[in-house]
Each structure stands twice: as structure tokens, then as C-alpha cells.
């Protein structure tokens, strides 16, 4: 038989509940049930009773769950995002904010946090027509938030732990790498003057990101010993005029100043060098550029229209630098270091078409340098053995 036990919370707004206990109605079991009931009522009276722990299979468990565990994904992500703002870089927070407000909350916000399952996330991601990079960013953000929820003991396990959704075949998308030809570079630079021209020439010949360009100070330039620029900070529109340390260790780097870059800096000295602060200024305000947006609006777009060059965003100066270096035969690992990448695999994947193919004389230098030495060594060994044989014969 099935015995019912009744738990009545000592609270003016209490709800009377009855749960079944699968025990035979013997005298011993009835006594155990009474003791169980008394223990429950005591836990309720001191505020330690958890319905879902005592009756995990009950349909009422969710109804009486603590408020925090009945929080929606929307509510939790909103709290998590507000807490993150104090602990991450402005650009990172801005990325999180966009993913949370534009992607995660609209899709998963109404789900109870404790009910969020991997399958629901996977099924949603499968509907998105975005790049694999965007899919990775979405999951990284959600995984980080759920890790924090686990540490707060709001959920027992992170449903995304040890798992990553990846589409077998990424949807076709236009290649973003669209460098400027030498003729287009010259046309754009001719349409610019003063500080604007200096900055764009410097960008084309260093490969710096726009956020790195605007954060550059004269103290970052090594003129005499190494002719390098030290890149260690970046400034985005999200940072609101505050330079921040680059996100990765590889991003903090020394970039060799090639002749056109040095020429641009020497021309720029007349404008900002004496102030000993930012290298490049907005010519309209005579203050440091606030980010990519003002550059495009006040300087870049007008120059492109004036020349008739097909429009590309300013970031293409970075792609142009990479394509020029690789086309000239510079080593991919050197290019990767110049651009702030951890290794050269990304360079080969993204810019591989500009890497020169092997020609008919490929390998000749190695052969001339090493094969001759190997032959001489081998011949030396033969001559040595012959000399020893001659001595023995004598």
C-alpha cells in the first residue's frame, strides 16, 4: 500500500501538501512516516526545508523552489551582465552586451535558469545563419555566464561544459579580406592631407588595428635604437576615450617601422610631437580620435568618394599590409608577429592566396648551403679511411 504524509508549513500563507510514500502500512513504517513528517515540520519551522530535496520526484517541487532557483535566463543574464561591467575591458563588455541583449535573451530569456538544457541551446544555434566565429562567440559568452551561475550554486552543472556546437559546413559568406591595390592606396593617400594622410600611410605600412592606432602615444616610438613602435594599448568607442591594455599577450608587441611608416611619423611630428601625447589627432578637434566611427565619418568616407575607389572600411588597411608583406615573400611567422597573432596558422588560412607559390628554383638555396657541406663531410670521411688503410698497408 501507499502511505500519504502531510506536511503543513507553520506560516500564515502556508499550503497544505500531501506526498505519497511507497511503504507498506505496517506499524513500524507508520512510525517512520510520523518521524519523517515531524522532521519535515521542524525543517519548515527553522527555515531549512527544501521541497525538491525531500521530494525530488514531486510535481510540486518547482512550485516551492527558492526564488533564486526559479530565476529566468533573462533575469540572470541581466544581473550577470551588470556585474561583469566592473571586471572586464570596455570592448569585451560591449561584445557581451550585444550578445546578451540581441541574441541570448530574445532566444532563451523566458526559460527558467534551472531548466536550461544543452539540447535547447543546440536546437537554437542550429537555426542561426551566422558564421562559425559568431557561433563560437555566442557560446563563449553563455558558457561564461553559466559557469558563474554554477559557482553561485544557482544550477548544479553548466549544460555547456565540455561541449561546443559547430556547424559541419559554415554558410557561405563574402570574404572580408579585400586589400587595396598599390594604385588604390596612392589614390586614397592623394585625396588626404596633413594628419589624416600621415595616419593612413602609417596604418598601411604597420598593419595596426584602428583601435591601436588611435591609442598610440609618442612615447611608444623607438626612433634611434630599433626603429620600432611598441603596441600595448587599444581604444574603442566602447571604452569612451580610455585606452585599455590589449586583450592578448600576442597583441602587446613591437612592430618594425618600415620606411613609409617612418616617413609618415616624421611628417606627423610637426603636428603633435611637442605635446608628447597622442601621435594622431582628429584634425577637426585637435584631440585624440575617439574610435573607428569618427574616422570613417569625417575623413575616410569623403576621401573614398573623392577618389572613386571602391569603398572598403578602414580596417582593410590591416589586410592590405598583410597581403603586401606576404606577396613580397616575407616569412608568415614574422608577419604574424608583426600583426599580433599567436602563431602563423591564421595568417596562412586567411591570407594564403597572397603567399607566393614555390617556383622552379625553390630549394636551390638550401641545397647550395647544406648539400655541399654534407658532400664535403662525406668525402672527408672517405679520405680519412683511405689514409688509415694506407698507413696500415705501409
Automatic annotation (TrEMBL):
Residues 175-364 form the Tyr recombinase domain. Residues 71-150 form the Core-binding (CB) domain. The keyword Membrane does not apply. Keywords: DNA integration, DNA recombination, DNA-binding. InterPro entries: CB, DNA_brk_join_enz, Integrase-like_cat_sf, Integrase_catalytic, Integrase_recombinase_N, Integrase_SAM-like_N, Min27-like_integrase_DNA_bind, Phage_Integrase. Belongs to the 'phage' integrase family. This is Site-specific integrase.
Amino acid at each position: 500500500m501507499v502511505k500519504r504524509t502531510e506536511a503543513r508549513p507553520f506560516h500564515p500563507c502556508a499550503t497544505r501538501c500531501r506526498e505519497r510514500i511507497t511503504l507498506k502500512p505496517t506499524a513500524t513504517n507508520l512510525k517512520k512516516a510520523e518521524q519523517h513528517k515531524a522532521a519535515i515540520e521542524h525543517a519548515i519551522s527553522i527555515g531549512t526545508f527544501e521541497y525538491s530535496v525531500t521530494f525530488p520526484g514531486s510535481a510540486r517541487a518547482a512550485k516551492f523552489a527558492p526564488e533564486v532557483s526559479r530565476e529566468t535566463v533573462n533575469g540572470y543574464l541581466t544581473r550577470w551582465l551588470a556585474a561583469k561591467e566592473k571586471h572586464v575591458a570596455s570592448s569585451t563588455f560591449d561584445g557581451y552586451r550585444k550578445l546578451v541583449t540581441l541574441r541570448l535573451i530574445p532566444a532563451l530569456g523566458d526559460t527558467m535558469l534551472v531548466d536550461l538544457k544543452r539540447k535547447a541551446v543546440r536546437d537554437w544555434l542550429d537555426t542561426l545563419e551566422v558564421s562559425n566565429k559568431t557561433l563560437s562567440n555566442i557560446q563563449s559568452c553563455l558558457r561564461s555566464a553559466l559557469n558563474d551561475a554554477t559557482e553561485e550554486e544557482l544550477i548544479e552543472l553548466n549544460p555547456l561544459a565540455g561541449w561546443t556546437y559547430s556547424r559541419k559546413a559554415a554558410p557561405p559568406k563574402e570574404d572580408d579580406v579585400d586589400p587595396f591595390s598599390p594604385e588604390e592606396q596612392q589614390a586614397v593617400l592623394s585625396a588626404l592631407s596633413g594628419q589624416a594622410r600621415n595616419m593612413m600611410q602609417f596604418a598601411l605600412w604597420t598593419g595596426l588595428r584602428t583601435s591601436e592606432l588611435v591609442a598610440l602615444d609618442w612615447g611608444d616610438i623607438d626612433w634611434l635604437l630599433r626603429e620600432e613602435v611598441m603596441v600595448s594599448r587599444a581604444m574603442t568607442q566602447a571604452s569612451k576615450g580610455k585606452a585599455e591594455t590589449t586583450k592578448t599577450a600576442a597583441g602587446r608587441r613591437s612592430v618594425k617601422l618600415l620606411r613609409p611608416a617612418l616617413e609618415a611619423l616624421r611628417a606627423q611630428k610637426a603636428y603633435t610631437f611637442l605635446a608628447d601625447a597622442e601621435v594622431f589627432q582628429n584634425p577637426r578637434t585637435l584631440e585624440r580620435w575617439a574610435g573607428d566611427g569618427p574616422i570613417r565619418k569625417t575623413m575616410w568616407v569623403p576621401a573614398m568618394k573623392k577618389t572613386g575607389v571602391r569603398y572598403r572600411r578602414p580596417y582593410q588597411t590591416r589586410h592590405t599590409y598583410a597581403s603586401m608583406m606576404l606577396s613580397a615573400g616575407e616569412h608568415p611567422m614574422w608577419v604574424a608577429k608583426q600583426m599580433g597573432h599567436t602563431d602563423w596558422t591564421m595568417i596562412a588560412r586567411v591570407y594564403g592566396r597572397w603567399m607566393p607559390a614555390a617556383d622552379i628554383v625553390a630549394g636551390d638555396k638550401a641545397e647550395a648551403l647544406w648539400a655541399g657541406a654534407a658532400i664535403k663531410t662525406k668525402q672527408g670521411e672517405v679520405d680519412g679511411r683511405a689514409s688509415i688503410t694506407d698507413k696500415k698497408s705501409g
